[in-house]
Amino acid sequence: MANYETHEHDVIVVGAGGAGLRAAIEVSAQGLSVGLVCKSLLGKAHTVMAEGGIAAALANVDPQDGWQTHFRDTMRGGKMLNNWRMAQLHAQEAPDRVRELERWGAVFDRTKDGRILQRAFGGHKWKRLCHVGDRTGLEMIRTLQDQGVHQGITVYMECTISKLLKDGDKISGAFGYFREDGRYVLFKTKAVVLATGGVGKIYSVTSNSWEYTSDGQGLAYEAGADLIDMEFVQFHPTGMVWPPGVRGLLVTEGVRGEGGILRNSKGERFMFKYLPEATKNDYAATEEEAKEWVEATIHGKKSEARRPPELSTRDNVARAIYIENKEGRGSPHGGVFLDISYQDSERVKKKLPSMYHQFKELADVDITEGPMEVGPTCHYIMGGIRVEADSAQTRVPGLFAAGECAGGMHGSNRLGGNSLSDLVVFGRRAGLGASTYAKSVSGQPSINDSDINLAIEELEAPFNREGKNPYDVAKHMNSIMDAYVGIFREQKDMETGVAKLEELKKDVANVAVKGGKAYNPGWHLCRDLKNMMVAAEAIARSALSRPESRGAHSRLDFPDTDNGKWSTVNTSVYKDGDEMKLEHTPLPVMPDELKELFEEKEKAHA
Amino acid sequence: MRKATLKVFRGDKNGGDYTKYEVPVEEGMVVLDAIHYIQAKDAPDLAVRWNCKAAKCGSCSAEVNGKPSLMCKTRMDRFEDGEEIQVQPVKTFPIIKDLVTDVSWNYEVNKKIKGFSPPQDDNEWIIYQEDIDRVQEFRKCIECFLCQDVCHVLRDHDRKDAFMGPRFLVRTAGLEMHPKDTANRMKYLKDEGHIGFCNITKCCSEVCPEDIHITDNAIIPLKERVVDEFYDPVAKIFKSIFGGKK
């Protein structure tokens, strides 16, 4: 049997994006020993890609804002399927987390009077996103990284966890390998925080990098946790569509937040006609009103004008772009036009510097001169590991989850800017929850040798068999998900998708690879594919089980949102033997004082 | 479809050689796409680091036809038809495998810099935009380490034992120029980071994918501060009488 090295910590955090870093900082602050394990180098996680900002009701720009409005916007954006308690904690704690980031060295853009500046974003009633140009995620990850480093966190870089180990029903360790040389590693621990991010690599057009292979979701599922809301996959409305090499690359919602206009090939500003009745009154009714709002925003003035229709929620804008294309009014490469070039070019370069460079260098388009071509790209998954709101604990004792890999916070659709705040609010809570739990565990839980042997056998197997190239299998999975469980869904398509995924499982179980164990990406993908399969199957089965359209889940055969049963249940999947079991579990019931927030809103509209 | 030939370094610390691969070229393709094509079709074990593919994470640094570059930003249509494109790992750091190098030294250097040290107050901070424009420029750094790669103190003289390199001078400048920072890192810069080793050839600024004016805006002002602190006789007398700032 192969050798492995062993490390011991009170808590192991898997993933070093915003949530993982914040969790590790919290564990360390609680006086416990923490090991932070990440697949890439430190500081490269996907948080770095977040552009537009972090949502927090600081009320620096719009003094009317407050946590109640942020909470309400979040719940409405998620079409009321969110875990209300998570949405409440998030809205209440986000301002403190932003101030904390500033105290740790983050340098946010400022208002004229020297406070943290906030910009508008889709679905947020007030200007709420604290930002640094269009590189807010980089600012956040570097701040957390340096804070963590100076706090003395132990980081295991380029290390992949392939199995969670348990002592009875409780977490006792994590096993994996270092990418550098393929050596194996055992982490003995009392608690594990999963903060591994999303699943974007199961679709072909995605803003996600190679890392987003559903690792946390896969590990948690195997360990006995359940995944909820997996049918809700966010296609960001504005990804690059041309040239092919950059297809899917994110174009920040900040472009629309700064006044970017969407038009179809006929020059029509189509978003006006796609505004849902329920929220129509929050948006400008005419181009003139939208223009007035943009002018007021640019000059930091007060205005009664309502925000432009481009700032509708992401699910809605993505669907609108899809329909415009389907009805023949798309741009030459299957998108629509996003235009900010009517504004002063120096301002555009200052507010959206990385978008300017991204288009200039990769697409030969000067966004201060002409429009960008954009279309939907797989960006985020609302669903994920089910956690208890306050502590972020899963149903497996000692297993915690935070950030994108956890579910519940965003319901059926996430608002832009609510992800960065989610990371720090629930990263901290998961770190706190794991610390409290670890302190309550007496002695080191035991590790079962046979579990380690199984983990090693699983990792070695691709070298010792004939089978398909893992890259081909991943591509096949992409094509199934694109074709049968994409933006618009229909029963027979999803049934075909589920059947094809079932067949693909054999290929996933038998992928083979050549070469050695030292830095061999093909080998790494062999294990990642299993996690991807968990997400793909969970998404397909969950989507098939929900006969309505809600948020990011759009059914052609059930175009309406159901106000009955389907507004009261989450879809949950879990492992039962070798089968994926599915059930619908009741939503937690919102207390009356929070319910009133929605009634007031309706009264105001009447 | 047009085809391109890539000569990619394959090997590890025990040596290696260039292997040729043919890759079909699509419009808008970058070198990293070509490397991914090779990985998927010919060589699944070809080692390469990458993440965002949008020049935001700084993972895919390599030397393309000898020029230190981010592969995700290096377009294939920059090369002539029939031109062989040579891709090799960055030279300044020890190779792990193929295009991947051991950059852990950088993380060790970073740990030694005294972190952000604000005053312990609870007031809301009022900071004006014009006072942080410069700091924000430094904080654009994506840690691709290309500046470290081309710095001749590190690349040609291999003085990683002494010199912190441009990346960490930029980080230090970002801290020193932060309006709320109270620490003083001048002694560290002079005696441990050895800022004096930099003789401002500006290679680092030229290669920076984020267009940070590393030499002009970070290193030279820091050098001036070090000089003020340690070598200015008038200031020395002044300080000995009235006490120094920080």
3D architecture notes:
- The complex is a heterodimer of chains A (606) and B (246).
- Chain A has helices at 18-29, 67-77, 84-103, 136-151, 215-223, 254-257, 287-298, 314-326, 345-351, 353-363, 418-440, 449-460, 470-484, 491-509, 521-545, 592-605, and strands at residues 4-8, 11-14, 34-37, 54-55, 118-119, 129-130, 154-156, 159-167, 170-178, 184-188, 191-194, 227-228, 233-240, 261-263, 336-339, 372-381, 384-385, 399-401, 488-489, 554-555, 569-576, 579-586.
- Chain A has 606 residues and is α/β, with parallel strands linked by helices.
- Among the domains of chain A are: 241-377, Flavocytochrome C3, Chain A, domain 1 (Alpha-Beta Complex), CATH 3.90.700.10; 450-554, Up-down Bundle (Methane Monooxygenase Hydroxylase, Chain G, domain 1).
- In chain A, β9 and β10 (184-188) form a beta hairpin.
- The longest helix of chain A is centred in the last third of the chain and has 25 residues, at 521-545.
- By secondary structure, chain B is of the alpha+beta class.
- Helix content of chain B is 36%, strand content 15%.
- In chain B, the strands form 2 sheets. In chain B, strands 2-1-5-3-4 form a 5-stranded mixed β-sheet. Chain B has a two-stranded antiparallel sheet with strand order 6-7.
- The N and C termini of chain B lie far apart (64 Å).
- The chains are: A alpha/beta (606), B alpha+beta (246).
